[in-house]
Design a protein that fits this description.
53% of the residues are buried. The protein has three domains: 1-29, no CATH class; 30-57 and 276-451, Alpha-Beta Complex (v583 fold), CATH 3.90.1700; 61-270, Enterococcus faecalis V583 fold (Alpha-Beta Complex). It has helices at 8-15, 32-40, 45-58, 69-72, 94-106, 113-122, 179-203, 208-217, 227-242, 248-259, 266-279, 340-343, 358-361, 365-375, 402-408, 437-451, and strands spanning 2-4, 21-23, 62-68, 79-82, 126-129, 135-136, 148-153, 159-163, 206-207, 289-295, 298-303, 311-314, 319-322, 335-336, 379-388, 394-400, 414-419, 427-433. The chain is built from 16 helices and 18 strands. It is globular and about 70 Å long. Helix 3 (45-58) runs antiparallel to helix 11 and helix 5 packs across helix 6 (113-122). The strands form six sheets. Strands 6-8-7-3-9 form a five-stranded mixed beta sheet. It has a four-stranded antiparallel beta sheet with strand order 12-11-10-14. The two termini are 40 Å apart. InterPro entries: AllG-like, OXTCase_su_AllG_h-dom. Pfam families: AllG.
Length: 452
């Protein structure tokens, strides 16, 4: 017996020794059926979705360069990128404010945190989303001109960018800006970035798709678990790093830093996911989601068929495990561009490949398997390269479809880190979060207006 909705019938049947399969299903929200009919009935819809998701899957991401944002993106002094949809200082959350303060200090635009806050509040600097510059940023995602980025090519000349990963704990992306944070960022700009740039330019492109596919076979899901992928990257680059011209002490320090940071590959995976998602943009009639992102205040989605428009709702509070004495009252609402991983069929969508992730975000191993299986209901296809061993090497669910999300009521599952709500705190935990349903409903309405 299969049941959906309230549990009364299922409970009664189970009491009579009837085997029951409970299905997580909710009817579409009021008024959604007309919009669904308009979008699904659009003669362009099926072909448009096939085209968009085909372009996403055709991307073959490779690391091709490393350099400062001022060089790679043409980012000017006084311009800062941030995660998520557009945001003003007045609406910025604690971790976003902390990261912007730290970036001001790093760029030499302020001598003290107080001076930085005054300048930011006065509108003396420009804030723009990373996504508007073919970039993504984890957590607060703040990028200034002097900060170094990975450049990832899709194999057809399209590029996407992401910052270098700082490690865990009290780091800029979680809103911390103490002296140790600024000192680490300066070392990354003076030593880590140049060594990686010289290595990549000397050896040639690094095939990120191959590393991601292999890491999935080794227990990563590439959002909150990147241990295998980081190890594979070190194996790929180590010989070329030590053959570089930098002082031996610097080369050794770079290898120690990367090897000691299990999340180092995350930022590369984000850029790889971004370049594939960007390839799917701009297909009229397509309901494929090409970006999901959070700025600590809003959760926003972008859809292939609606251009660069953002559809937003309030960012939710993750549910998971907390570090030390931290608790729910210490956590900020969801933040970061790292949901590009789920957009591309990784992260929460690939949790079945990484059952150990539940020790980091909470839950049990069956929950990880169920999360991946549930995502097949709201996606257009399965990834031909990214496969899940425990599901008999079935491809990860990929291509979030707005119409399927609204019709089923099933929301994308996202695993994420948690930033402290007070600026300067850093990371307080990790867990799972669902995006606001209204963001997808707004996107559906926009698609329906175009179809009519």
């Amino acid at each position: 017996m299969v049941t959906a909705g309230t549990s009364v019938l299922a409970d009664a049947l189970e009491q009579q020794a009837v085997t029951v399969e409970r299905v997580d299903w909710r009817p579409p929200p009021a008024g959604a059926m007309e919009a669904l009919d308009a979008v699904v009935g659009d003669p362009r819809h099926a072909t448009a979705n096939a085209t968009a998701v085909g372009r996403m899957l055709a991307a073959r991401p490779s690391l091709v360069d490393v350099g400062p944002a001022g060089e790679l993106l043409g980012l000017r002094p006084g311009v800062f990128l941030h995660a998520g949809p557009p945001l003003e200082w007045a609406r910025a959350s604690g971790p976003m404010r902390g990261a912007l303060v730290g970036a001001m200090l790093l760029e030499g635009l302020a001598a003290t945190p107080e001076e930085a806050e005054r300048a930011l509040a006065s509108g003396a600097v420009t804030l723009e989303p990373c996504h508007h510059h073919a970039a993504v940023g984890p957590m607060a995602g703040v990028v200034g001109p002097s900060m170094w980025l990975f450049a990832v090519d899709d194999g057809a000349g399209r590029r996407a960018y992401c910052s270098l990963n700082e490690g865990l704990g009290r780091v800029l992306r979680y809103g911390a800006y103490g002296p140790e944070v600024i000192e680490r960022l300066r070392w990354m700009g003076a030593v880590l970035g140049p060594v990686l740039r010289d290595t990549v330019r000397r050896r040639g492109p690094v095939d990120l798709m191959a590393i991601i596919a292999q890491a999935l076979q080794m227990g990563d899901e590439l959002h909150n678990r990147n241990r295998a992928a980081t190890s594979l990257l070190v194996r790929e680059l180590a010989a070329d790093i030590v053959a570089g011209d930098a002082p031996q002490a610097d080369l050794a320090e770079v290898l120690r830093f990367v090897n000691g940071n299990d999340h180092f590959f995350l930022n590369l995976a984000m850029a790889a996911a971004k370049v594939g998602a960007d390839a799917a943009r701009g297909v009229p009639g397509s309901s494929l989601v090409v970006a999901m992102a959070r700025n600590g205040t809003d959760f926003g989605v972008q859809v292939s068929g609606t251009g660069d428009r953002w559809f937003t709702g309030p960012a939710g509070l993750p549910d998971g495990l907390y570090l030390g004495s931290y608790g729910p009252g210490d956590a900020n609402p969801d933040i970061g561009d790292s949901t590009i991983m789920e957009t591309a069929g990784l992260g929460g969508f690939a949790m079945a490949a990484a059952p150990a992730i539940v020790r980091f975000v909470g839950g049990e191993v069956p929950d990880a398997l169920a999360a991946t299986r549930r995502m097949y209901e709201i996606t257009l296809t399965e990834h031909p390269v990214y496969q899940v061993p425990i599901l008999s090497f079935r491809g990860t669910p990929v291509g979030v479809d707005v119409t399927r999300v609204v019709r089923t009521g099933i929301l994308p599952v996202i695993n994420t880190g948690m930033a402290g709500r007070v600026a300067g705190t850093g990371q307080v935990g990790a867990g799972l979060v669902e995006p606001p349903a209204e963001a997808f409903a707004k996107a559906l309405d926009a698609l329906a207006r175009q179809a009519r």
